Amino acid sequence: MLKKKTKKSPGWPILINQFLEHLQIERGCSVLTVRNYRHYLERFYRFIQREKPQMRVSQLDLAIVRRFRLFLAEYVDRHGLPLKRVTQAYHVIALRSFLRWLVKNDIKTLAPEKIDVPKGESQSLKFLSIEQVGRLLSQPTLSSLSGLRDKAILETLFSTGLRVSELVGLNRDRLNFKTKEVGVIGKGGRARVVFLSKWAIKWLQRYLQTREDNWRPVFIRYSGKVLEASQGEKMRLTSRSVQRIVEKYVKQARLPVKITPHGLRHSFATDLLESGANLREIQEMLGHKNIATTQIYTHVTNRQLRKVHEEFHSGNQ
Asked: Which listed residue (91, 96, 163, 236) is catalytic?
């Protein structure tokens, strides 16, 4: 009898592309997330090509993964800088996700649970006190269009706790100043409503009233070529531009904490918790899928408990 030929699975590049399509279509991951996963997996594939060019997906083993981990640990870029521990971890997380997808699709490969994710460096949560937030928000020059825009950006970030990608994705028709609400689409395509403070509304309205265009984006750039009405999408401010704006005013305010737009998100959540909101409520407002992500803010609760202990425990009297 003739033996049945075993059907070979596609090669690495095809499977990686299929996995990235799965992330985008099935899981609703953002363009940035897909781009990052592509970068991490293509680096792994290049490593395989150099170390064992004939190795198929079904032949992957822990030995080659360990060698890849060593490669990441010793990697130095063209500027002579090593990869951060957290970046090394992202490579491993991407590889595990890819292998999990292969197993789910009945493609023989190394079991993803056999690969341990490296521990990242412990990082303290960076956030601003209310007094520091006030100093930051007072920095933009209000006599210029870009200054008004920057003021509205800072007020909106602190009022809503939006991710920077969500902020730059805002369109005018999503702002409801009467109900003080904004509808956003967050990570994984999850929709939620965030709320505007009276100060955020004041500065958003003042900024938008100065605009003579009909472009949809709430926040636009003021550098480079001004485009026609039909090209308004190209006028939208980028995430990197907002990061630079925040960095500029943090330096200008001479704050002791190096805060990013995400740091303002932390400041928003910390302020809520200190004012009495519970973690479930904060989870909803931040758009966290899991409560475990929100639990990073329990450092505030711990600090409050310490104050209660010091004030009321008889051993401290």
From this structure: 163
